[in-house]
Amino acid sequence: MSLIPASLNDRYAGARSSVVYLWVVAALTILPGLIHSFLPDGGAQSIAHLEVGDKGELVRGLFAWEGATQLAMGAAMAMVAWRCQPLVPFFLALALLERALMSLDGWVLLPPSGGHHPPEHYASLISLPLTLIFLVLAVRPRERG
User: Fold this and answer.
1) Are the C-beta atoms of residues 83 and 8 closer than 8 Å to each other?
2) H runs (alpha helix) in 47-106
3) How do residues 31-66 score in pLDDT, each as one tens digit?
4) What pTM did the predictor assign?
5) Which of 12, 71, 101, 119 has its CA 20 to 30 A from that of 112?
6) Phi-psi category of 13—alpha, beta or left, where left has phi over 0 and alpha has psi -120 to 50?
C-alpha cells in the first residue's frame, strides 16, 4: 500500500483538454493558497486592497485558514490530474460548485461595502463558464481515432 495509487488514467474517457484545465485550476488554487498562507497580510491589503481597520489580525487569520484549504484542495486536484483522471469530472464539478457559491456570495449575498471587489470576485465569474465547458467535455466520451 502506498500514499499515491497506481495510475488509473487508462480508465478516463473524457477530453484531454479537461485534464489540462484541471492542472490549470490546481495551479490557480495553489498560488492564492501560498499567498494567503505566507504573505504578511495574507494578500488582504497588498493584493485585494481591503480595508481591514483594527481587525488586521482577524483578517490575516481567516486568510491563512483559507490558504490552508486552498493548498490542500489544489494538491488534491493536481493528484487527480496526474494519476486519477477518472475523477476529473468530479473535481471539475466541485470547482464549479465552489466558484458558483463564491460568485453568489461576492456579487449577490455579501457584496463588499463601497463597491470594491477583490480580484477573486472577477476570476470566479470568468471561471464559471470555463469550468462548465470543461466539465461537459470531461463527461462526454472522446472519439477514439
Assistant:
1) yes
2) 56-83, 88-104
3) 999 999 999 999 988 988 888 889 889 999 999 999
4) 0.89
5) 71
6) alpha
